[in-house]
Amino acid sequence: MADFNLPFASNGERREPTSDEQDSGFGCGPAQLPLFNWMFWALQSEVNKVITQAGITPSNGDMTQLYQAIQALIDAATGGGDTSNFILMSQARARLPIYPEISNVAGHFGITTPGTGQVRIPAGISFQHRGIFPITTVQADLATDPSKTYHLRWNPTDGFALKDLASSIYNPSTLAENVETFDSSYDDMLCARIITNSSNVPTITNLINRNILRASGEATGPGTFGAGGFGIEDATLPSAITHFATVPVNFARRPDAFLSALNDMAMGTTTGGPAGERNFGCRCDDRYSIKLWAQGDVDMMLAWVARA
Length: 308
What we know:
Blueprint: H1 19-24, H2 33-53, H3 65-78, H4 89-95, E1 101-102, E2 112-115, E3 118-121, E4 126-129, E5 133-136, E6 140-143, E7 149-155, E8 159-164, E9 189-196, E10 202-206, E11 214-222, E12 245-248, E13 256-264, E14 278-283, E15 289-296, E16 299-307
Antiparallel strand pairs: 1-4, 2-3, 3-6, 4-5, 7-8, 7-9, 9-10, 11-16, 12-15, 13-16, 14-15
Helix pairs in contact: 2-3
């Protein structure tokens, strides 16, 4: 019977089951009319609410109205259409090619050390997994050992964990900690580098996690050949670059770096190289910083951009 409007026994005598009846069912003895009335009334009230909420008039002639109502409510919430156009949250968290994004201005968790041998993940920092699933941190303290280098990582299965670079499980190829192998991926976020000294005092480098990582700036310096500082070591070997202006970026992924502008600020007398020779550029060796150089017979201003 689909016409549940009004629900069965709406005006009849009813009583809810006791806690014992709710746990064990009907007891011995005669059935009690008020309890039966309440049970049918409760069931039909629930079904009636779904049917009428969907704008369907309850009818005894159609026993598919609950199904119709559920479908109508889904269509109203989603705009209807082919269900193959929809994706579950679990599917989105496995498919969307979006890097983790920390929502605060700094773009990192602000990991601190509350004391010797500990690092702290603060509470209340929000981030997005795969660009669609919001997560907020709760405060947690993780223990460190002396004279170690760790990566603090997060993944959807294990949450936050410290990874020892000396571990054959985490780093079976004994790679340097700054190689791209350890950079953040879609489901495995590199949050910070932690280095402890022999007294187990942590030094923490918080790393920025955004789907698109970008930084820019300017650097100015003299370009005297072979003088070190903001230049190269050997004017005859432009590829043998050993002195740089180093700019920290502290991204969770190694960026590409390039010059966006160059300003030759003043002509002068060449020192140590051919007249008018210029040498300048930038590069990025790891996730932590970019390196700029400028060399020649003039001062130069370099504008740079790093992006990952």
